[in-house]
């Protein structure tokens, strides 16, 4: 009939809105499921030895899916573990130390390689990434004993070093949440007593 306008069917629009909501929630769930990645420290222990301090910590590293894809694509990942040692209440470090590790994927053998870039520069090969990360979990430092007894603060931080990444990846890594592999500074206080030095 002329002059009759079709009545808009709002049910189709409602279906589109519902479908878009479900898709956005499922995408949100996908991103949330990847939030278990990151770097964390647990059980920081400081032991006073005869001539030094032994610092050990559990170093939990879990790469995001994007970092794992980059690794399999041939991009090495450098993990830097930093330590500072200072008297409680002071802003001046008595000692600073760092350990740098490089993780690589070997596509021909489908193995992973961990190289300690400091010290002896030892390289170990693993059949699975989880075995490599298990070995990486044990971090140890040796520090000189301070001259005086008192309360001291040991601070640890671990992160993927962006400077070791290819140039085109460095800027996007600043903003992408899936590249946030940084423990932040974690501190542990130790009370040193008796004769020191």
Provide structural commentary.
The protein is an alpha+beta fold and 197 residues long. Helices cover 25% and strands 41% of the residues. A six-stranded antiparallel β-sheet has the order 6-5-4-3-8-9. Strand 4 (95-106) and strand 5 form a beta hairpin. It starts with 9 loop residues before the first helix and ends in a 5-residue tail after the last strand.
How many runs of DSSP E, i.e. beta strands?
9
Shape: elongated
The main β sheet shows up as: 6 strands, antiparallel
Total helix count?
A: 4
Helix content: 10-25%
CATH homologous superfamily classification: Immunoglobulins
Strands ordered across the widest β-sheet: 6-5-4-3-8-9
Oligomer: single chain
Q: State the distance separating the first and last CA atoms.
A: 103 Å
Give the structural class.
Answer: alpha+beta
As a percent range, the share of strand residues is: 35-45%
- Shape-level CATH architecture: Sandwich
CATH topology: Immunoglobulin-like
